[in-house]
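ARCHIVE CARD
Drawer: 12
Card no.: 0347
Subject: one protein chain, sequence and derived structure
Cross-reference: see card 0346
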Amino acid sequence: MTAVHPARSIRKRGPDADPDVLRTDALIDALAARRPVGDEHDDPAVRLLQALTADVDQRLSSVSITPST
């Protein structure tokens, strides 16, 4: 089951939906879920978003929580 995004719930779905909007939504959802977005995205902005997502994940995994004394 797909999560419902309240901000996107007003967008058209089905045959009247704008294909560019649906592709963008799918891309954003994939990035948010840390799923691969596919090799068809040669857009520099998409590559930048992927790199930033990977950087955030790397930084979060290397943060050590130590109490200050």
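Annotation on reverse: The helical segments are 19-32, 44-62. The chain has a mean pLDDT of 76.
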